[in-house]
Amino acid sequence: MRWSYTIARIRGTEVKVHLTFLLLLGWIAYDVWSAAGLAAAVGYTLFFVAFFLCIVLHEFGHITMARRFGVRTPDVILLPIGGVARLERIPEAPRQELLVALAGPAVTVAIIVVLLALALVTGETAAGIVEAARATGRALAGRGNFPEDVTFVVHLLIVNAAVLVFNLIPAFPLDGGRVLRAVLARRLGLARGTRIAGAIGQMFALVLGVCGFIWSQPIWLLVAFFIFLGAGSEASAVATRLAGQGLTVSQMMVTDFRTIPVYATLQQAVDLLLAGEQREFPVVDNLGRTEGILTRDNLIRGLTRLGPGGTVGEAMTSAAPAVPPTLGFQEALDRLRASGLPALPVVDGSGALVGLLTRDNITDLLLVRGARR
């Protein structure tokens, strides 16, 4: 996800903060400062830092459970709707996904229990906590103001309880939606279960967005936006992964392609580009070894910077990673995405260039496979 910034790395998992989370924090701090002064703004900022730590603990509940099933988590991103742990793959069995989905709320429950005990020890009453929670709920629904005489611990307790309830709503990709997907996948299969859970998640997002618009709740609109996008993108990703099961690079690569010498001029590259449909060209040396790849963007930037007399070697992407023809579908797709390039050279064990892995060709292959099914 773009506009995300790494702030920590814990046991191989990068903790990232999305720009929108920081904007939300800044907006709240400014709103409180303009209404109640600097001291109140600092207090709310500290509260959000504590809330941020609770979210991180929640996500590491998911991460720890996923590790038990051999699933690595490259990063966790903090968004206005909470945290999103990006698992490298969906756990194999629906039961495993169910346990991973419930692990985060279980950590939140533990946090709530600790905060409740701390509040009671420091002199709060159960009736007072319940009344503060009710007042907060009315404020979130737009039917009142947030209670002002709530202590830091009780406030944090109430917000964690609200997060728990919200996360358990069966709207994909919230935790409750993942539980729903796991149950549906067990009965209907992963593909159909994901489609249904994703559709429910997007319907919930639309309802939440309409309610946020009617009741003038901008936070609801922001949350609805992320849920709608998250449900659609994850459902699409699962469909892509399932459609490519069993494929290798040798079945996805382009075999009818042109190469271009590293010493060729950019004018020669332009002639080659305009002569056919190919948009990315493997760059080779005199012995036919791959030196890099020349994309259409490389060519345009090279013409602007160097002119038509510049060489392909000066304009190409030399760090283009080669992939072997035996590589599986998902890993090949991950490498292609990670490279940021539209195509990667395919090189066999002897070092010979045997193909070109392009996003367009993968898309065409998946469409054909889907039509055949």
The major beta sheet can be summarized as:
4 strands, mixed
Strand fraction equals 5-15%
Q: Which bin fits the share of residues in helices? A: 55-70%
The termini sit apart by 32 Å
The largest beta-sheet arranges its strands as 1-2-3-4
The radius of gyration over CA amounts to 26 Å
Question: Strand pairing plus helix content: what structural class?
Answer: alpha/beta
List unreliable stretches of 5+ residues. none
Number of strands: 9
Number of helices: 14
- Please identify the oligomeric state: single chain
**Dominant shape:** elongated
Mean pLDDT: 89
H-E string: EEHHEEHHHHHHHEHEEHHHEEH
Task: Provide structural commentary.
This protein is an alpha/beta fold and 373 residues long. The protein is 61% helix and 12% strand. The chain contains 14 helices and nine strands. The protein has helices at residues 19-36, 38-68, 94-121, 126-140, 152-167, 175-188, 190-214, 218-243, 249-252, 266-275, 296-306, 312-315, 329-339, 359-372, and strands spanning 4-10, 13-18, 75-79, 82-86, 260-261, 281-284, 290-294, 343-347, 353-358. A four-stranded mixed β-sheet has the order 1-2-3-4. The protein has a three-stranded mixed β-sheet with strand order 5-6-7. The longest helix has 31 residues, at 38-68.
Brief summary of the model shown:
The chain has 373 residues and is α/β, with parallel strands linked by helices. It has 14 helices and 9 strands. 61% of the residues lie in helices and 12% in strands.
